[in-house]
Design a protein that fits this description.
55% of the residues are buried. The chain folds into two domains: 405 residues, Sodium/glucose cotransporter; 108 residues, no CATH class. 78% of the residues lie in helices and 0% in strands. The protein contains 22 helices and no strands. The protein is an all-alpha fold.
Length: 516
């Protein structure tokens, strides 16, 4: 075992011990379903803010998006991080946090499908949304596993990737199943601190690398960059230094919209607002979460934008997904300080991914155990078994996503590109309009869900038949943005054609905004 591996193993062992301890300590506070899923609605500002931010950013953002967009677009890719911080985080908290907390508490909704059922009085909508969540979040989780697996493989090349994915799966399952949302909120706080320390340190080290020359020389060195012969992604200094993305401006805009506005309809993100304890905590959480997302998002894409300089314009053997792992090994591979920081960065990326995984697992498991099964079983379902069933489905979802991740099936990996757009495209219209308007009907909400799903589904089918699936995957940001826009437009338009028959029930729901 060489020095980088030794430092990394020590850091990971300490981290794993902390996470398992949090799960064990939290077990006593997670014996009821309400506590297991949303922490009894008593989670404070710091824990909720960090939970939102750490769920937002996983290893996929660092290894995939920041590496790919930083390499191809350059300094303009930082706008994605800025958009995520101010549109995906700040605006979401300002517009939806308090309304979501008050309405879900008033109608006693612990999950997104349960919100749809009780807001629109529709069992069918609960079942439909549960299926969408489970089907499209499995490949999302699988992509997170693969991103982490390839990253650890760069430090431990002699260890099979699936071994790392299995360790990640077991660790996530153990502390999540033991402690539920309480454990995830505490662990997110720890993970968030690790992420901030790691990203700030990494930005400092990368910017001061000899190939970059500091923040003052970054633009100058990028402007002088010329692609090497045979570069599969040729570009020039003018592209890499164009603040608006140069010839990638349109692509950049769609990625900003998808990854920023997409959070407005993702159940694993919105669920954080269910659990926060009061309005005062929301005000503090808004500031904390925005600062966190600014540091992490902008830091990740800034690091990615230096990749061509650090790697001397040579794309690593593993392709675009190997850009960040290779950069890390080159910048941090020598000296005790560098090795310690490398170990911290590995824990950072593990933390970022595990926080995303635990939120996705809890969201998906509850969609089946809490929302789907009780409706299907009807009177034969025993509610006292619900907490046990939810824990079992957490295990099942982790196992399922792990199996998907270990299969080298291109469509499974590519499907991750669509999951964000599909899930948010289905839910964003019914969720947002349901918070703000009494006039939105069940049929209008249903129409928005189906329209969002069909927008991505039909577009994918047409492009695949005419140009192949790879082209469909390349256009996934545009399809996701279109699905969200269609959902937001269809919901109120369809609702205009039929009034609510249960106006008194709707009035009673909206009374929640008059409560403390």
């Amino acid at each position: 075992m060489n020095q980088p591996q030794l430092y990394t193993v020590v850091a990971l062992s300490i981290y794993a011990a902390i996470m398992i301890s949090i799960g064990i300590i939290s077990y006593g506070r997670s014996k009821s379903l309400d506590n297991f899923l949303i922490g009894g609605r008593k989670i404070g500002a710091w824990a909720t803010a960090f939970a939102y931010g750490t769920t937002y950013f996983s290893a996929v953002v660092f290894v995939g998006y920041a590496g790919q967009h930083g390499w191809n677009i350059g300094i303009g890719s930082v706008w994605i991080g800025i958009g995520n911080a101010f549109l995906g985080c700040l605006l979401s908290w300002l517009l939806f946090a308090n309304r979501t907390r008050k309405m879900t508490k008033h109608i006693d909704a612990k999950t997104m499908p349960e919100y749809f059922e009780k807001r629109y009085n529709s069992k069918g909508m609960l079942i439909f949304s549960s299926i969408v969540i489970f089907v499209f979040l499995v490949p999302y989780s699988a992509a997170v596993y693969k991103g982490l697996g390839s990253l650890f493989n760069s430090v431990f090349p002699n260890v099979e990737t699936w071994v790392w994915m299995l360790l990640i799966a077991v660790l996530t399952a153990v502390y999540l199943v033991a402690g539920g949302y309480v454990a995830t909120s505490y662990s997110d706080l720890v993970q968030g601190v690790i992420m901030i320390i790691g990203v700030v340190s990494l930005v400092f080290v990368v910017l001061n690398h000899e190939s970059v020359g500091g923040i003052g020389s970054l633009i100058e060195n990028l402007s002088n960059f010329v692609s090497k012969d045979g570069d599969p992604n040729p570009t020039t200094g003018s592209q890499l230094t164009n603040i608006f993305g140069g010839n990638s401006f349109r692509f950049l805009c769609f990625n900003i919209m998808l990854t920023s506005f997409g959070t407005w309809g993702l159940p694993q993100m919105i669920g954080k607002f269910y659990a926060i304890k009061d309005t005062a905590a929301i005000k503090r959480g808004t500031v904390i979460s925005t600062i966190f997302c600014t540091v992490i998002g902008c830091g990740a894409y800034l690091i990615g934008s230096t990749s061509r300089l650090v790697l001397d314009g040579t794309l690593p053997e593993g392709g675009i997904d190997s850009v960040i792992p290779t950069l890390l090994m080159k910048v941090l591979g020598g000296g005790s300080f560098g090795l310690i920081l490398l170990a911290i960065i590995m824990v950072l990326l593990l933390s970022a991914s595990m926080s995303t995984l635990q939120s996705v697992v809890l969201t998906s498991a509850s969609a089946v155990a809490v929302d789907f099964i009780p409706v299907i079983r009807g009177k034969t379902f025993k509610s006292e078994n619900q907490i046990l069933i939810t824990r079992l489905f957490c295990f099942a979802f982790v196992a399922c996503s792990f199996v998907f991740a270990t299969q080298n099936i291109p469509i499974i990996v590519s499907l991750m590109s669509f999951s964000w757009g599909v899930v948010s495209g289905c839910f964003i219209g019914p969720y947002i309009w349901g918070l703000f308007s009494k006039k939105i009907t069940k049929i209008g909400a249903y129409a928005g869900m189906i329209a969002g799903l069909l927008t991505v589904g039909i577009s994918t089918l047409v492009i695949t038949l005419t140009s192949g699936f790879s082209q469909a995957a390349a256009h996934s940001p545009e399809m996701g943005v279109a699905a969200m826009a269609v959902s937001l437009v269809v919901v109120p338009i369809v609702s205009m054609f039929k009034k609510n028959k249960d106006a008194s029930r709707i009035e009673a729901i909206f009374e929640c905004y008059n409560e403390d």
